[in-house]
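REVIEWER CHECKLIST
Item 1: Sequence provided? yes
Item 2: Single chain? yes
Item 3: Sequence as submitted:
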Amino acid sequence: LRRPTDREARAPELEREKSTKKAELDLQLPNTFQFGCQLVLRVTERWGIKFAGVALVSHPDGKQHVVYLPGCLTFDPAGISGDPHSSERIGPFCNRLQIGLAILQLCILQWGGTADDLDKVDEVFRDTLDFYSGRLLMAKWMRHQVEKACLHRRRASPYPTFLQSHIEAGDFVLSGANRRVTAEYLSTFCAGQPVVPDAYLRKVCAKDRGCFGASCFAGLKEKCATPELPIASWNSSASASSSFSSPRKPSRGSQRGSLSMESVRTALAAGGAMEWEPADSAEAAATLYAQGAWLKEDPRS
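Item 4: Structure as written out by the authors:
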């Protein structure tokens, strides 16, 4: 298999043989505590995307920043439709890998590590990420968040804005029908109302009702027959506001499957126990943590 790259069109690839990759790394850290870090595991929605929670980074000077953590069923706008590993819907393995890497990076920086140490982590995990996940831009954005929160003490770029910058730099090519989910999502983001594409909803409805998504999508039909939609256009020169209203609801059209798709959207909105929709600051996360909300278990989240 070729090593994947987002600088050219990517097609789904299937392995024909079983393989094993192992990542080993020995780091010598100063062991000097740099900042506090608390995991707030509560479903959080930003830019129309649901995250499993946040890592709340608190510096000695009082500054606080958040790192958004994806979870199972999280929509990845950089995903590839039809790919067995890196589709538009994050599955269990990709979720474990991304969360594991993010926590490892946070721990390294928390105890005096540097960006060079993160480079070493990226290098030893490169094969695992490339061949068992393929979510290259998601991994880059997760590191971007960690560095901004821990080293620069600045707010990280929103994920859609991060993707836009890579498109403009030529590092993310959207050619091909399997990238239509990216163009469609970014067009809604630029319009000020980011909405996940129907292709993502169809996949969740068809695949995840009977496994780890059963509690969220119980009762939904196995398939949602919705006609193909035209590829949305995205204007790289368009400006996106830093604040957005709630995602718009789909119209009740006469197309077959439109009501089923609306039921999936309703399940996504209601099934995730969205009790906290924070602004772009860590204050809400700190308040939630102080109230002990991270201990509350909800089977729907």
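Item 5: Key structural point noted by reviewer: The longest strand covers residues 53-58.
Item 6: Recommendation: ____
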